């Protein structure tokens, strides 16, 4: 079956299986965070050690996603999905019955080796199965899957850990993963085009060191500090490796990751907007829980409930946004969504120690509504300009940039918050000392620290407002890419250069 015939009658049953697999994998990503203190107590490990359950998972994902373009081109979608789901199921079983902390970490990393391929593979299948004029709706349903899983993950995890063992989290995932694997074995067909290309081992090594180093360095900067050798050292090594990797890809006949796709202006613009939006989006997802739990003193479970409506709304809006994209294009949605994001982010700068629970919930939910109008339309508009042969590279590039920009945005915003908190804390302490009311008791110190933290959070939301404003200005330059413009003539831009 050629692509034209496939796009007239997309394989909805097969795509549903892929969606189910992706949902299980994404749900797993957010389940474990709440359980980390319990795991620390059971295995008697320190916070820096237990973090490897999340850092190790993230690093394996960071290494595999850039390589996904090669795997998607080299292997059939059926073989790739079954391999990924088998690894994920094996890792889940290892983690569920882990007798030691080391086995648990190994199980998580095996899980990541499977889940790291799920998003690029699913996106590539949808880009192949749906024509450009129907991709918005298809990508909207994909957005529903990837947003719904993280939305229910923390709340489900909190309830499970409160009533059962942390192992139950993996025991819930295990049968679901097994069912997806069995369904995939019997129902999946090959629809994506393949080429007999060989892996360039040196490119794979450079990619692993480069992207893995950057992700690890920026992700640990908030905890270790920027002056820690393992932070700036891994970032420097990562930058050198990525620079060498890019130069090598530009000279290769069959690059592992095709950087010439940035010759397409709308794809290049969408990448820049997504990087900026990701950095701004993470401010709300990180700063809001810190404010709610530390400044307002709200319990973790209720903090999760406060953020749940926003996450659910973002998931529900995804398919609606997809249909609106097909009808009106990406620019109008992105401009409206980013305008809402800029306004609501600015309103977060007015938080104080007495801000009401439902007021915070409303602001956060409205901000998530704005974000729901941005991510998928911007990404899909950029991908629509690429020829079919470049889809694996486009999806791999987008997913890689989202991971890296999320890690960088998190590290930078946390650093800004901490620096501001320290300077304001010092000023408040100096003023108290000058007035003869130096805080000498724990309650006074707690209040001073709370005020300094609040100032640090609101100041960081100021910075995030300007970041979102940059994305809004960039969105004004978006142009709708029609099916006629995505012609074979565009593929000439992708002609490889010989080494």
UniProtKB/TrEMBL annotation:
GO function terms (MF aspect): transmembrane transporter activity
Subcellular location(s) of the protein: Cell membrane
Annotated GO CC locations: plasma membrane
InterPro entries: EmrB-like, MFS, MFS_dom, MFS_trans_sf
PROSITE patterns recorded: MFS (PS50850)
Keyword Transmembrane: yes
UniProt keyword Coiled coil present: no
Pfam family, one: MFS_1
Limits of the Major facilitator superfamily (MFS) profile domain: 14-483
Primary location: membrane
Keyword vocabulary terms for this entry: Cell membrane, Membrane, Transmembrane, Transmembrane helix, Transport
Positions of transmembrane segments: 12-32, 52-72, 84-106, 112-130, 137-156, 168-188, 200-219, 231-247, 267-292, 298-320, 332-351, 357-379, 400-417, 457-478
Topology of this chain in the membrane: Multi-pass membrane protein
Domain of life of the organism encoding this protein: Bacteria
Family designation: Belongs to the major facilitator superfamily. EmrB family.
Protein name according to UniProt: DHA2 family efflux MFS transporter permease subunit
Organism in which the protein naturally occurs: Siminovitchia acidinfaciens
